[in-house]
UniProtKB/TrEMBL annotation:
This is Outer membrane beta-barrel protein. Residues 16-199 form the Outer membrane protein beta-barrel domain. Keywords: Signal. Pfam families: OMP_b-brl. The keyword Chaperone does not apply.
Amino acid sequence: MFSRSMSTLVSTLIAALGLAAASSASAAGPQSQPEAYVGANIGLYSKYDISCSAGQKCDKTANFGGKVYGGMMYEQWGVEAMAFGTGRGEGTLKLGGKDAQGSVKMGGLGVVGVLPLNFGDFTLKGRLGAAYTHGTANYKSGASESKNSIAPLFGAGLSYAFSKQVSLTADLDHISAKYNKAGDKAAVNMFSIGASYKF
């Protein structure tokens, strides 16, 4: 069911990107040339906001994460779609309204508006939007639960234009997701680095 929902959301995001590009080009006139780009980042450091109980194993730093993304950039703003995964963190979660030891991970799709500030070859970007997330909790007791939800997605990034097409990127994204049927949620800050290619 999640894969079908993800496919639907991907189609919607692609259509939204195309519509945004067409409407902006029409409104801005022939002088404005939007730039399309794609990229991929590897998560170097991701930290969950879950708690730790005394005497229990706790590792709030996710073991792996990353994202792939693509977008359209205009003169003063842009729109970007991404698919992401944050890796697994371990600590104290909620199960049936009570504390329970376990691990949590999340992934999903997001779309954000982008505000760029250019400083020569460097560009600072602010991002704000929403994500369709899939959170999963695996408890020490052997139980597991998952939940799909929509959550805010925001972050910032810094890129350096290595050439006219290729930029090196460093991003910090704040992502949250519900992970069980009761709607309990966790959040993670993911720092990632990678590269993007401008068409």
